[in-house]
Structures are given as C-alpha cells and as structure tokens.
Specification:
By secondary structure, the chain is mostly helical. 66% of the residues lie in helices and 0% in strands. Among the domains are: 54 residues, Serine Threonine Protein Phosphatase 5, Tetratricopeptide repeat, CATH 1.25.40; 56 residues, no CATH class. The chain is elongated and about 60 Å long.
C-alpha cells in the first residue's frame, strides 16, 4: 500500500513539474500603440486629500476664497507634484483678483501637465494681465494639443489687436464645432470682422444666417443681438 502511495505521489509531482506555467497576457498583435496612462488619469489625487480639497471647494462655493486658497495651499505643501491642486488654487486667486499669483500657479500646472485645457487657462491668466502675446501663444498651443474651443480665445486676441484676417479664420474654426443655435453670436461677431476687411457681402451673409437661426429658435434672445431682422407675424 505504501509503495502504491509513494508511486502515486511521484507521478503527481512529475506532472506538476512538467505542466506548463500559466502564460502571461501577450501584447496586442496589431500595430496600434498601447497608450500608458498616468495614475492621475484614473484617480486625480490620493484619497487622503479628498476631505481637504472638498473643504476648499466648499469655501470657494461660499465665496470664501482666501480660506479656499489656504486649503489648496495645505494640499500643495503635503504633495507638490499634483497639477490639480495648483489649478484649484489658481482659480481661487483669480476670484480674489490676484492674476499674478494665479499665473504663477498655472505655470506650475503646465510644467506638470501640459494639455490643451491647461494652456487655455494659463492663456486667460495672461489675458487678465493684458499680455496679449503670451496669451495668444498659449491659445495656439492649446489648439495644437486638440482644444478646438481655444480658437474662440485666439479670435478674441486677434480682434483686439486688429488682425482681422486671423480673427475671421479663428472664429470660423470655432463656429464649425458649435451646435447651430450656439453659432448665432459668432456669426454676428464674424460679420464685424468681414466689415473691417471690406467684405460686405460676406458680412451680410453672416447676419442673414444668424437672423435665420434666431427666427428658427423662436427669437427669444433677439434683443441681445444688433441688426436683427425680426420675423413677420
């Protein structure tokens, strides 16, 4: 009996040794690049900071912006490599009318996470300081990073600085990504650019399109817009 048992154990051991090891997941066979996401994309910041950040957000909602800054500053003191903390503090500084401090925080955000929306936010910080050249550079970087809405911000700079050809091009790119009724003010705006360029026919065409959209919408917001052709009763 003991011989049979020993033989059985030997056979089981041999089978276990010879059995193939579990195979690891093989990489995709297609040529598409596998994108590696940072942990911050899954969890924007460690869970232990959530009460502190929530407190700061509540202070900001209650318009106690200095207290919100204190909360975000404490989070930064404990962990200085999370861009979200700086962006939250930057927005609080903006509400406190402290654009220089906001810009310093947006610089840190860009250093940690140079994506389209962050470039837009820093561009607006430059905008608030009247630094058109730096603002425009950030808006163009945002566009290069895929932020189509940054065309609206770039258009604002072009219009303010009298670059009407570029203004029209930028606002046209923005119109293309808007839903039809959202385009109304931008058609009117582009018409002013065409007027400045002496392209009166294109200006009138834009106003005509804007008026048609207004009429389709029931013309509830008609008083907001200049040169509106009111629908006939």
């Amino acid at each position: 009996m003991s011989v049979c048992l020993s033989l059985s154990l030997c056979i089981s051991l041999a089978l276990a040794i010879s059995a193939p090891a579990p195979s690891r997941a093989s990489p995709p066979t297609n040529n598409k690049e596998v994108i590696q996401y940072k942990n911050i994309s899954i969890e924007r910041y460690p869970q232990r900071f959530r009460p502190l950040i929530r407190r700061g957000d509540n202070f900001k909602q209650d318009e106690e912006f200095s207290k919100a800054v204190d909360c975000y500053s404490e989070a930064i003191k404990q962990c200085s490599n999370i861009g979200l903390f700086y962006s939250k503090r930057a927005s609080a500084y903006e509400l406190l009318k402290k654009p220089a401090l906001a810009l310093a925080d947006w610089n840190k955000v860009i250093a940690l996470d140079p994506n389209g929306p962050n470039f837009v936010c820093r561009g607006r910080a430059y905008d608030n300081l009247g630094q058109d050249k730096e603002a425009l550079k950030d808006y163009l970087n945002a566009i290069a990073h895929g932020s189509k809405s940054a065309n609206k911000d770039a258009a604002r700079i072009y219009k303010r600085t009298g670059q009407y050809e570029k203004f029209v091009a930028a606002i046209s790119s923005y119109i293309m990504v808007m839903r039809p009724l959202e385009r109304i003010p931008f058609y009117f705006d582009r018409a002013t650019g065409y007027d400045k360029l002496g392209k009166t026919a294109l200006a009138e065409q834009d106003r005509k399109i804007a008026n048609q959209l207004l009429n389709q919408s029931g013309a509830e917001n008609m008083d907001k817009y200049p040169n509106v052709v009111r629908p006939k009763n």
